């Protein structure tokens, strides 16, 4: 096992690589950053997913996605439908215990859709504030994502006059 500060640095690099792969639309790189049964020394053809570090993901407003197929499909859809995305991470905190690491951060996201018809310009840019928790597992190939959970941060405009959030739970 390596020194704690080295583990934190390596997890920070893995976390940054995740967001950079998203920004660049690099599906192969993004896929390689997620935990797979083979990373855990399990035969992928004969394993029971319930027995092996099944990955999960929650995108803002989406249901829980479980398993490599569902999670990676979601990123393929996001990449196919997002012309531009950039993440500015703030409030990043890394905690490592043994072979597990937890990263919490605020994703300050700037994204744009496809260009309007008859135009080469990017669609309107939209900003969004999201808090995220990324769980990593140490593997022989380095730190891999085990779970990503992102939730939108409500702005003051999202609350009613009583100051109580009226969003369904």
Report what the structure shows:
The protein is α+β, with helices and mostly antiparallel strands and 169 residues long. 24% of the residues lie in helices and 34% in strands. Strands 2-1-6-5-4-3 form a six-stranded mixed beta sheet. β1 (56-58) and β2 form a beta hairpin. The radius of gyration is 18 Å and the shape is globular.
Rounded to the nearest angstrom, the distance between the terminal CA atoms is: 41 Å
The overall strand count is 6
Largest sheet: 6 strands, mixed
Helix content: 10-25%
Number of helices: 3
Structural class: alpha+beta
Low-confidence stretches: 161-169
Spatial order of the strands in the main sheet?
Answer: 2-1-6-5-4-3
**Rg measurement, Å:** 18 Å
Global shape: globular
Beta-strand residue percentage: 25-35%
Question: How are the elements arranged and paired?
Answer:
Elements: H1 4-24, H2 27-33, E1 56-58, E2 65-66, H3 68-80, E3 84-97, E4 100-112, E5 125-139, E6 142-152
Helix pairs in contact: 1-2
């Amino acid at each position: 096992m390596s020194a704690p500060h080295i583990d934190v640095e390596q997890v920070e690099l893995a976390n940054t690589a995740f967001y950079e792969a998203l920004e660049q639309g690099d599906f192969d790189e993004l896929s390689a950053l997620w935990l797979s049964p083979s990373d855990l020394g399990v035969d992928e053809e004969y394993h029971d997913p319930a027995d092996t570090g099944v990955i999960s993901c929650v995108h803002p407003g989406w249901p829980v996605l479980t398993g490599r197929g569902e999670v990676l499909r979601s990123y393929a859809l996001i990449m196919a439908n997002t012309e531009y995305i950039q993440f500015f991470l703030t409030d990043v905190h890394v905690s490592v215990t043994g072979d597990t690491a937890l990263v919490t951060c605020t994703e300050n996201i700037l994204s744009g859709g496809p260009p309007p018809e008859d135009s080469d310009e990017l669609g309107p840019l939209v900003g969004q504030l999201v808090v995220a928790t990324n769980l990593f597992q140490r593997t022989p190939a380095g730190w891999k994502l085990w779970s990503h959970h992102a939730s939108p941060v409500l702005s003051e405009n999202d609350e009613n006059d009583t100051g109580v959030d009226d969003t369904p739970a």
